[in-house]
């Protein structure tokens, strides 16, 4: 008899999840179309900022991340922090291997385009702390592990981003006899990005769970409240994508060959980082949820920070800024495709090491 665990994957997904790739591609197309067809829309959106942060993008990300972080069972975080098979590989992948891989690919594919090359290296230095949370949730990754790894990435981002930028743009190229570039970015600018894009939704999610469970109990919280909050994660994601691509729609559509040159190393980067991390998690004996979390947190990038740094240092119309914008143009469809690959790969992993049932893909964006 065919049960829930053996039914075809598409049949176990809700309508919204089943056609998620369609909604995301439609949002990308809508954003690009609006940015191209509506004169001055990108400039108008870019001017709506709070302390240098795009207000529309910030609002979309907050709405996207809050429901997922409200789902996290914060009383289980200690099981993640004790798992060195997860924490150590994550730190190495994010802060040693990831930037080095992007540096190598940028120089390999764009030796004659220094502005785009620098933009890609900046993207590689900005480790993901925002959108990775929803990719991980859609792929039935470990929510508690994602919360811990994203928090670690946030701390390291504040501490190490500027130093790594100096190393990969100035010191290492100089040692190799290559062209050097300076990067002027303050620790406060990075900390502000972390505070807005992670701190606010994390605090809101934690307080919602604590107060909700205290008032009505865990059963009510997870069976009544969470299903109501869940759809807003997808709404926030789609809104963010529309705004992001509307901001740079004209730049992207008017330079298709340049976009293609930038896209190629990004495609290689996402494939190498995700597949390599997933294989490493399997070899380390991680269960599917935690291996999935390891893969998505290693492959994703903080494009909000990368774009902000590129614009602040080189200007909004610079090649570095365009490379930052192309990042999510490639990352979004690639990682949503990898969500489906991750779901299909569950059969190749051992049962959950925590003894907890694996998350169901049914309503994974909401429940």
Notes on the protein architecture:
The chain has helices at residues 9-12, 15-18, 20-37, 41-47, 55-71, 77-81, 84-109, 114-125, 132-138, 143-175, 187-216, 218-229, 231-247, 249-254, 256-283, 288-299, 303-314, 319-344, and strands spanning 49-50, 53-54. It is mainly alpha-helical and 367 residues long. It has one domain (51-236, 255-348): Up-down Bundle (Na+/H+ antiporter like fold).
Secondary structure: elements and pairs:
Elements: H1 9-12, H2 15-18, H3 20-37, H4 41-47, E1 49-50, E2 53-54, H5 55-71, H6 77-81, H7 84-109, H8 114-125, H9 132-138, H10 143-175, H11 187-216, H12 218-229, H13 231-247, H14 249-254, H15 256-283, H16 288-299, H17 303-314, H18 319-344
Antiparallel strand pairs: 1-2
Helix pairs in contact: 3-13, 3-18, 5-11, 5-13, 7-8, 7-10, 7-15, 7-16, 8-10, 8-17, 8-18, 9-10, 9-16, 10-11, 10-16, 11-12, 15-16, 15-18, 17-18
Notable characteristics:
75% helix, two-stranded antiparallel ribbon, mainly alpha, disordered N terminus, disordered C terminus, 367 residues
Between the first and last Cα atoms, what is the distance in angstroms?
Answer: 26 Å
CATH class: Mainly Alpha
- Portion in beta strands: under 5%
Order of helices and strands: HHHHEEHHHHHHHHHHHHHH
- Would you identify the CATH architecture? Up-down Bundle
* Strand numbers in spatial order across the main sheet: 1-2
Number of strands: 2
Percent of residues in helical segments? over 70%
Overall tally of structural domains: 1
Instruction: Report the structural category.
Output: mainly alpha
So how many helices? 18
Low-confidence stretches: 1-7, 353-367
Kindly provide the radius of gyration, computed on alpha-carbon positions and rounded to a whole number of angstroms: 20 Å
Main sheet attributes: strand count, strand direction, barrel closure: 2 strands, antiparallel
- Say what the CATH topology is: Na+/H+ antiporter like fold
Shape, principal axes of CA atoms = globular
Average pLDDT taken over every residue: 83
């Amino acid at each position: 008899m065919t049960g829930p665990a053996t039914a075809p994957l598409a049949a176990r997904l809700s309508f919204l999840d089943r056609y998620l790739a369609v909604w995301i591609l439609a949002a990308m197309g809508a954003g690009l179309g609006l940015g191209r067809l509506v004169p001055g829309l990108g400039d108008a959106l870019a001017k709506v900022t709070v302390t240098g942060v795009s207000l529309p993008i910030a609002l979309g990300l907050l709405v996207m991340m809050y429901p997922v972080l409200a789902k996290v069972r914060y009383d289980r975080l200690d099981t993640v922090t004790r798992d060195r098979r997860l924490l150590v590989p994550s730190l190495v992948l994010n802060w040693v291997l990831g930037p080095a891989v992007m540096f190598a690919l940028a120089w390999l594919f764009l030796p004659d385009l220094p502005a785009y090359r620098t933009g890609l290296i900046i993207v590689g230095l900005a480790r993901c702390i925002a959108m990775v949370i929803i990719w991980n949730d859609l792929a039935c990754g470990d929510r508690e592990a994602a919360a811990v790894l994203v928090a670690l990435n946030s701390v390291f981002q504040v501490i190490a981003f500027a130093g790594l930028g100096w190393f990969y743009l100035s010191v290492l190229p100089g040692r190799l006899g290559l062209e050097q570039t300076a990067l002027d970015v303050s620790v406060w600018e990075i900390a502000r990005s972390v505070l807005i894009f992670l701190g606010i939704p994390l605090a809101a999610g934690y307080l919602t769970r604590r107060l909700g469970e205290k008032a009505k109990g865990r059963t009510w919280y997870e069976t009544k409240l969470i299903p109501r909050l869940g759809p807003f994660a997808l709404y926030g994601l789609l809104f963010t994508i529309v705004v992001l691509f509307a901001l740079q729609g004209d730049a992207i559509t008017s330079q298709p060959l340049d976009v293609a040159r930038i896209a190629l190393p990004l495609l290689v980067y996402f494939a190498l980082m995700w597949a390599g991390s997933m294989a490493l998690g399997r070899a380390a004996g991680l269960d599917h949820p935690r291996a999935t979390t390891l893969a998505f947190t290693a492959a994703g990038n903080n494009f909000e920070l990368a774009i902000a740094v590129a614009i602040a240092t080189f200007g909004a119309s610079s090649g570095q800024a365009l490379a930052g914008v192309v990042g999510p143009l490639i990352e979004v469809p690639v990682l949503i495709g990898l969500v489906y690959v991750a779901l299909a790969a569950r059969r190749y992993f051992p049962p959950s090491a925590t003894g907890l049932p694996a998350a169901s893909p049914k309503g994974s964006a909401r429940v």
